[in-house]
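Worked Example 4.2. Read the sequence first, then its structure tokens.
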Amino acid sequence: MATIGGSAAVESLIETALRDQDQDGAIRWQAINELQKRGDLETFTAARRLCSGKTPAERMLGVDILGRLGFVGRSLPVLRSLSVREDDCLVLYSVLIAFGHLRDRRALPSVIALAEHADPRVRYGAAYALPNIMGNPPDPTGLSALRRLINDPDDDVADWACLGLALSTGREVENVRGQLLDP
């Protein structure tokens, strides 16, 4: 990996995270958590650079750091840009999870666009993000996207969308599916 221009501590944590090949690996997430705890501009800058990395692993790491670092106003443009230009499904999934963690309504157009993606992992990420960014009262276009995802051919996507719609509307999960039958 090319040097990203941060301090030795930031560089070391990034290298540690990138060495763990498992996207859900304990070592990777421990390093990410340490970076997120820093909560500083240096870490944000390093994560932003990673989002432009040559490999999907670098871009996913940058996204995973930004998703919980804070700096919402600075992170959203980076993530929204990546949501349009990225072609790796796992990176897009991470972008959607990051949007959900940031809980900012400005991500809604990007999430709605990705809710129609061909890959079920990306649609799952959209189903996760939507209830977290629709606001209160929930945005009608976000609700409509969740309703479409309830009918997704992938059961995990449909189930998560059902839960998201129930949480967003205050209805019981069992009643959400019935709601679809009565428009």
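Now turn to a second chain, presented in exactly the same format:
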Amino acid sequence: MTPSVDEAGRALADPTAYADDDRLHAALAVLRREAPVHWVEAPDYNPFWAVTRHADIMEIERDHRLFLNAPRPLLATAEMDAINRQRAEQGIGLRTLVHIDDPDHRVLRAIGADWFRPRAMRALEPRVRELARRYVDRMVELGGECDFVQQVAVHYPLYVILSLLGLPESDFDRMLKLTQELFGNADPDLQRGASPEEGLAVLLDFFAYFKELTEARRANPTDDLASAIANARVDGEPLNDFDTASYYVIIATAGHDTTSSTISGGLRALIEHPDQLDRLRADRDLMPLAVEEMIRWVTPVKEFMRTAAEDCEVGGVRVRAGEALLLSYPSANRDEEIFDDPFRFDVGRDPNKHLAFGFGVHYCLGAALARMEVRAFFDELIPRLTSIELAGEPENVVTTFVGGPKHLPIRYKLTPA
């Protein structure tokens, strides 16, 4: 049954909708067609404008002075909005690049920017490809059947980003668990608990870990990203504990969870579209385009919020100062006005103007690394893959923010290295 406009809008505030691709995209299609800028009043949430067309989202992303990340950068319940405001006032909340605006955003972004520039990516590529081989070899060791998400995909990009930070492998499992608890706080299988207190406990565990790391890197600097963050100075002063910890959190979490979702969702798409898998096998030069299509198809970051700094108009709709807007990236990446046959998975799609990494000053800092990791993995997997199929029902993460496949049971045959 096709949802009404109001039902479609409320789906954007329902974490279970993001675990059901058909339901989510049916709702988004209604909004793009009938109310692309729609006022949503959902139970337990402060109201917001749902923005679902690619062009309108681009307009908002371009104007970072009119549309601000603060004070509501992510969709959360009204209760959590109030708690987050209170924490920010007390100086104990997250203050990542996602949460802040210029001039602070520009200054803090520069701290990590050099670590993700082309020169740094070229230096890192041999390590990324080595890890890609390790995890394809791991698939061979698993005997031809596995839960690809849990046994392969979540570990590979985690090793990459935590190696870049310089963390010891003995801490990787801890970082994985904390990341899943942070981003999966609406998923019964991943959350530590449903209460705000349990959510805060996850955050405080991150902060405690990174406070200790900061002290160690300030005492004994090393040649890694963790040292660059720990020893960064703004106006001659080191970052305070919460800004430092926040920087680590966004790098250590978003730096791997989104990539593992893309790899898992990309593999599922190839399984469900065997003609595209055959096409990629036959023409490996398509791999860069295939990577972009996987990123568009999965769109791991589901939304960011913006707040209008003054009265304005979006998509012909009047928005008042102080009102919040939800930017729906899965909707933008299926917009019929931008993408030819947007519900077709096409490894040769060109052009591919997806917004999975955002746009403008808040464009994803790690986009080049994510592309490299996805390409390296499939460069290693595809030549060795002789057969693959689903071995059970895939499941997606229950979320409104970052997510993708949670379980992907597969059966396959791979040639040894």
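Notes for the reader: Residues 5-414 form a domain with the Cytochrome p450 fold (CATH 1.10.630.10). The longest strand covers residues 303-308.
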